[in-house]
Amino acid sequence: MNENRVHKTLVLITILASLNVVSVAHAENVLSYLTDKSGAYIGPSLEDNVLAMDTDKNGYADVFEVCAYLELKHGKGYQKEVLDRMEASASSKSCGTTFANDLYINKNNQ
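User: That's the sequence. What structure does it adopt?
Assistant: Structure tokens below.
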């Protein structure tokens, strides 16, 4: 029984080690894709990304445009919980924190 546990542990360690190698290899591919021969960054600038997200062409990308862009780029359901929270916060009339919400409610009740 002890040998079985050792075997399972070794298999797990081997799998984790190989996943680490794959992650490093993938990072190196992305890095080489985004840099030139001298190592200078040649990927899209922040301005390029904002322009790509700004679908209504008003000069900035709001939360809804950012969420739509990320889903378009990474697929439907990408980071759904996070993006849903961002959109819910953007749709509310006050800050989502408890402290600010209390101030908002008290101000409107007076």
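The helical segments are 2-34, 46-53, 63-74, 80-91, 98-109.
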